[in-house]
Amino acid sequence: MDFATWAATLRLLPDAWQAGRLVFTNDSILPLPMLFPCFMDRLRAQTAEYVGLTESQHPRLHLQSYFFMLQGRALKNDAVHAFWAEMPVLTRKQDVIDALETRLFNLATVRWGLSSKVLFPLDALFPGCDPDEVALVNVSHSYWEHLVQCGMPFVKVELLRDNPLKVPIQHWRAVMARHGADIDEVEAHLAVPRGGTKVAGRPEWRIVLSELNRVRLGIRRRRRARCTPKPVR
Fold first, then answer.
1. How many angstroms separate the CA atoms of 83 and 100, rounded?
2. How does pLDDT run across 70-86, given as a tens digit for each residue?
3. Beta strand 50-52 with 116-118: parallel, antiparallel or unpaired?
4. CA 48, CA 59: separation in Å to the nearest integer?
5. Could you read off the pLDDT of 175-187 as tens digits, one per residue?
6. What predicted TM-score, i.e. pTM, was given to this entire model?
7. Which candidate, 70, 140, 157, 185, has a CA 20 to 30 Å from the CA of 176?
């Protein structure tokens, strides 16, 4: 639902396109607060129009979509606007990966002509390696601690909750605590069911969209108030 929710947010808050940069992220990652100052300085220093944190070669080269940024010319591009305006609602994670995440890099760099940058690229993590040798590596899982040592301020929820690749993570609490994470909050988040919590029978994503709509209507009311002539006494 990430792409559909981001698209809905942009429809509800169209002024977002006037920003200097937009960051897209989701709740599949856990933050390491002490790494954020240096990370944010590095992120703000980027001049590329499409910036991601990690990349994958499987099934084709793409930037992993748990965190990426569009800025500058990307935010003025009609094709970029159309991509988000025509976003389909896909509920299966694999459908989102196949139809959107793995296509976005090609769309951005080839069809839209955007410049791109990966902050933690494969060739820096595996210097001198043949790309085919790391094609199936999911660095956000298999090399999570190395990424943290390189300044990555996030750890994947799926890694800690499910550990599908059976990576050694017995020491994750010590690593995260060392970088400022609240372990009680992390464990509470990991305990949330896969489908998310429900409040009064409503899934979280519907509550988020409802709140965004409330914000949009509030902005509209304030604009009208500013534009309405005040009576002269």
1. 10
2. 999 999 999 999 999 99
3. parallel
4. 24
5. 999 999 999 999 9
6. 0.82
7. 70
